Amino acid sequence: MKNSAYLITLLAAALLLVVYNRVSSAPDENPVAQSTATATIDDIMTRTSVRTYSDRKVDSLTVDTLLRAAMAAPTAGNKQPWRFVVITDTTSLNFIADNFGSMKMAAEAQVAVIMCGDVTSTFEGEGREYWVQDVSAATENLLLAAHASGLGAVWCGIYPISERVEKFSSHLSLPDNIIPMACVCIGYPAAETTPKDKWNPEYVYFNSWK
């Protein structure tokens, strides 16, 4: 009987320990989880478009991190149609700045990433255009990763403006199945920037429009 009571006591203690560990690891009770969540939300809320950069170089490991973050984005059917052209060449950066009025900051950028979609790696029919959503998600991930890394970046649209698509495709020698969607200029900010507060509760509806 003593051995049985001792065994029951041990089992009860083990069960309490398991319950304690689960409770203490819950996001709202775990300081580490809370800190991570706070940092993530802070990165989202403080990210802003940065168009002026210092001459500090962006190393290849940082660029690799940005691309890995981009490829961690959600993708319809796991098709992963995103493709990336990384530009560090001054001549190409100046070409972008000289040919696209809204992208003049490319001349100061250390890196530009052309976010592309492979239309042969997505769905057929109407679902073909899901590549735009996938590449957009990858672009936002890249922007957030850049901000979290102390970099500044700006999303410059290419697709669906046909003239822009044609110029980028020609300059980068893109095959017909690769469509350039956006140009993200990246560098270390030349000055502090202030994010815009875009929250507007009037844009939010619950359950129906009315």
Write the layout of secondary structure elements.
Layout: H1 2-24, H2 31-46, H3 60-70, E1 82-87, H4 90-99, E2 111-118, H5 130-148, E3 152-157, H6 162-172, E4 178-187
Antiparallel strand pairs: 1-2, 2-4, 3-4
Features:
210 residues; alpha+beta; four-stranded antiparallel beta sheet; 6 helices; globular
SS-based class:
alpha+beta
Computed Rg: 24 Å
Q: For the residues shown, what is the average pLDDT?
A: 90
Distance separating the two termini? 69 Å
Q: In total, how many beta strands?
A: 4
SSE sequence, one letter per element:
HHHEHEHEHE
* Largest sheet entry: 4 strands, antiparallel
Helix content: 40-55%
Low-confidence stretches: 4-20, 22-26
Major sheet strand order: 1-2-4-3
Helix count equals 6
Shape verdict:
globular
> Proportion of β residues?
5-15%
